[in-house]
Amino acid sequence: MLRVQIEGLIKRYAGVAALDGVSMELRPGELAFVLGPPGAGKSTLARLIAGLDRPDDGEIFFNDRMVQEVPARERRVGMVFQHLGLWPSLTVAEHVAFPLRMKRTPAAERRRRVAEALNAMRIDSLAGRRPESLSPSQQLRTALARAVVADPDLLILDAPLRLLEPRAREEARDDLRQLHRESGRTTLVLTDDPEEALAMADSLAVIDLGRIVQSGRPHELYNNPIDVFVARLLGPTNLLQGQVDGHPGDLRGEIIVRTPLGRLVARTPPGATAPGTSVTISIRPETMTASSTVPPGWNRFPATVERIVFRGDVRHIHARAPGDWPVLVSVLQGQSQAIREGQGLTLSVAPEHVVVLPGKFALT
Fold first, then answer.
1. From start to end of the chain, where are the E strands?
2. How many CA atoms lie within 13 A of 26 on its CB side?
3. Fewer CB within a 10 Å sphere, N or C end of the chain?
4. 270-302 pLDDT per residue, tens
5. CB-side neighbour CA atoms (13 Å) of 208
6. Furthest-apart CA pair in the chain: how many Å?
7. Which domains are present in the chain?
8. Does residue 124 sit in helix, strand or coil?
9. Distance between CA atoms of 198 and 127, rounded to whole angstroms?
10. Radius of gyration (C-alpha) of the chain in whole angstroms
11. What is the mean pLDDT of residues 319-341?
């Protein structure tokens, strides 16, 4: 299995840095995701790793081999592009066979490997059809089969699910998980979909403006974002402007922050935070409880329900807290049947879910 190490990667176009000192590692056999908004540098990173473009600076290692000068055809990388790159004139089987033809694989072995790839992607019955007659998910499976038929050491998928409808997207996620599990192949997925990244990734790196902002396990980034950008990117959150007020007596690992909702006890962030420091508070909607019974040591504040949005298994409660501050709470349907619009609530949240982030955020 392949280990990929990237150190200080820089790529400029017309003097503008698409990648600005990117460093990251893909561990052997892991399913790694890079998440970022459009234009963050994801596709540029994919092309540099695959050898389709050359970096202006920095190093790329496959295991212990430096490869930034190695041609793409020698890197053993399979790649699926955003728009799949299927040719209208070729059948499904001809698409899958194409990489093997380029390698001059003998005909008998080529037929065997194409058949195996088609079966693995469950498109063997489509072998004679052309792309225009395929559904988007069938086109994706064709592109995946073409990418893996030559047994690459590294598979790169550049926003592979973007063109699928939500229902087909979940099925495609299962296909990708199964493909990765069965092959054990080091796989890198580039996406702008946080739900996709959180649901599938072994490791996750967030990129913005050509730089890696934060990396780690998905649950680590979701629960402990490094800044407001990462907190917002990974899902809904309540953001509050605050100012550090001190520490709650002799309790360790907690800090008091003055906010529009009152004084909140929060988890102490890494590094020293002096009293008077301006900070931002992030509280995920699902970490708050709407109940008159408040566990000992939890933060509590009143709120009034403005509207309720039904989302099947959960209800999103949009409320107004002290200072007319908007608050979003996600509550399981079975635990929120009695909640009505216009009703007053007591909201509570444990200190470990009150996350302190550096600086002030911009009101939008």
1. 4-13, 16-26, 31-35, 57-62, 65-66, 77-80, 154-158, 186-191, 203-208, 211-216, 238-246, 254-259, 262-267, 278-283, 289-290, 299-310, 314-321, 325-332, 344-349, 355-358
2. 30
3. C
4. 776 788 899 999 999 999 998 888 889 899 999
5. 11
6. 77
7. 4-230 (3.40.50.300), 236-358 (2.40.50.140)
8. helix
9. 34
10. 25
11. 87
